[in-house]
Give the backbone structure.
Amino acid sequence: MTEKPASEKMHIIHDVKRPMLSDYIEELFDDFIELHGDRYFADDHAIMAGVATFCGMPVTVIGHRKGRTIEQNMDANFGMANPEGYRKALRLAHQAEKFHRPVINFVDTSGAYPGLGAEERGQGEAIARCLYEFIELRTPVVSIITGEGGSGGALALAVADRVLMLENALYSVVSPRGCASILWKDPKREGEAADALHITAQDLYSFGMIEGIIQEGQSNAQLIRNVGRALRDQFAELAAVPDMETLLQKRYEKFRKIGVFRQINQQENEGV
Amino acid sequence: MGLLDLFQKTRETSMEMKPQEDEAVKVVKCKGCGAELKAYAYGKNLYVCPHCGRYGRLLARTRIRQIADKDSFCELFAGLAPADPLHFPGYAEKAAELADKVGMPDAVKTGTCRIGGIETAIGVMDSHFMMASMGSVVGEKLTRLFEYATEKSLPVVVFTCSGGARMQEGMFSLLQMAKVSAAARRHSDAGLLYITVLTDPTTGGVTASFAMLGDIILAEPRTTIGFAGRRVIEGTIGQTLPDDFQSSEFLLSHGFCDKIVPRNQLRETLEKLLRLHCMPKGKKRQVRL
């Protein structure tokens, strides 16, 4: 099967008929109860989170919410979270740790919100804190990138034991449009940038950055079923990890190994 | 003998501020007020313009000279150079050109030094190399620095500056944020001190990872520090932002940095902070209650 290029997938993942967080929650989880607020400032509607059961197992579910209608989009700030969204996610992740519940993250965001208030309330700090806490969170974490994995705003919810991507999902350090504007001063070349950045699930799998790709099948129902099956498989595998220290060590090593560089003769380097 | 043998060291020689012969006559222009400054005197003034007070951006090696005890810096991991994992158009050429021009293979210098006699692991980012964007090399060197410091029970001081993640390395760059933060976390869990000094400009993925994770966060005055770019925000909210937006003063007033420290007090401040947490080798703290 030939894979579609990133420039084509950019359009697929913006289809409003594509399943979104509320669809996954409704189809895959029982007894979902949404929990609100970061306890410091506000309740960010760009992040939805709560408790539920998955195959009978209590879990914490956290994800980006985008909404389908324009009113929903605006209420959810188009899935672009403010610091309070990340702090809500972190509060509930710690709650999951306390009650020994696994965490499931659904990632679908163009990025963290670039706004005045976001900067005033420490967007950078909020994301940094997610990375710092999720890496040592003493409970299994699985993240699924369902659509857009936009830079730091996505990574904040993707420090996990297992990161999976849907077949057409994209995960990128910069929006292709932003990349084209910065490097070539031409946002219209976003398609070209998308391909040059290597941001498809297949690219990331080949780099060893994600653990699996979920096929989308022919219908939304099938897509959601495949997500459910993938989650079950991941948790079955994670259940076989002997203890928490092993889990955390593996999580650390998974991120530790990422990077491509050369070793050069130090004489080439002038030093201080 | 073990893992640590992998970390080769280079002993650096002369660290003092030697007046270069040509510097005595060379004149540089302040980028703030345009004043013509004698290079040597400007250097003596720590690259702060005596007329307008503008802080010049420092080369990593100059920063180390200003902060570290004389002759105490030992560079670590100097041989790591960028690869071009995505064969991104123009990247390899640009990196090679800058390696030549700036005299270092990527945007961070790492090593150990003494500050006021206290052995410290130090990382200094250098904006002259692709605006100190973070790719695999920056991420790997800082991660190794934290791991080395954890192993040796050393405090870590990182001088940050960065335009953000290095786009040309795609997702390899983004994931460095998680990698460095993870190593910083392990260093912290070992009970060790981490100080960040935010310098101009600290933005994007560096702000959203290790820059904001110090036990103590210092900043130079009038430094640009933020997550999203100013123009991106202006474009999103459709209004012009105030001048002091995303400055170190803005961060201080919103509670995201501990202290703004003028450049001529940085060494002394670091020394005091380090002394509150660690002691020079062989010395014991005298407590008289």
